[in-house]
Structure prediction request, 196 residues.
Amino acid sequence: MKATGIIFLLALGLTTICNAQMAKSLFDGESLAGWVEPDTNLFWTAHDGILSAQSDPDKKGSILWTEKSFRDFSIELDFKMGKGTVDSGVFLREINFQIQIGESGSLKRDMTASPYIPGKGYPVEASGVADLLQQDDWNSLKIEAIGKTATVWLNSKEVMTYTTEEGPEEGAIGLQLHPNRDMSIDFRNIQVTEIN
Prediction:
C-alpha cells in the first residue's frame, strides 16, 4: 500500500475516534449538581448513588430539570418504582413531550415507555411492556431523541418509536414527580450521549 493510502486510513481512523460519542453522567450520585433544584426542595434527595423522588405532604409534585440544554441525544437511566401509585416520566426538551414511567393518571393503567403529549394523551403505546417491566426491581430505560422522533428501549428491548409534530429543537431534560400523588421513585446511572 502506498504511503498516501496509509496516511489516509490513519487520518480516517483518528477522525472516527475523535467523533465517537461519549456518554456523560448527569448524576454524580451524591448531590443535585447539574440539575435545577426547586426553591423549596421537599422532593429530591441524592444518596448512595441514587436520586430519590418523594411526594411532599401537599402532593404538589415537581420536575427536576437539567441545567444544560440538549439537541439530539440519548439518555439512559435505571429506575425503580417506590411506594404508592407511581406516575413519573422523562421530559424531552420541554414539558409537552414526555416518556411515561408508571401509571397514567387518566388511563388508570401502566403506560411505561409510552409518549405522553398534552392534548393528545398517549398517541401510541409501547409494546411488550407488561412482560418486560419489573415492578419491584431496577429497570433500564433508554430514550433516543433525534429531531422530533423518540425511540425507547425498556430493559434493552426496543418498545416504541414516535414522532411529534411540534416542539423545540433544543431544551433541558426533566424528571417528573407527578402532583396529586403519594408516591416515590428512585433513579440511578443517569447518563446522556449527545448525538452530532
The chain has one domain: 23-194. The CA atoms of residues 36 and 65 lie 5 Å apart. The helical segments are 3-19, 129-132.
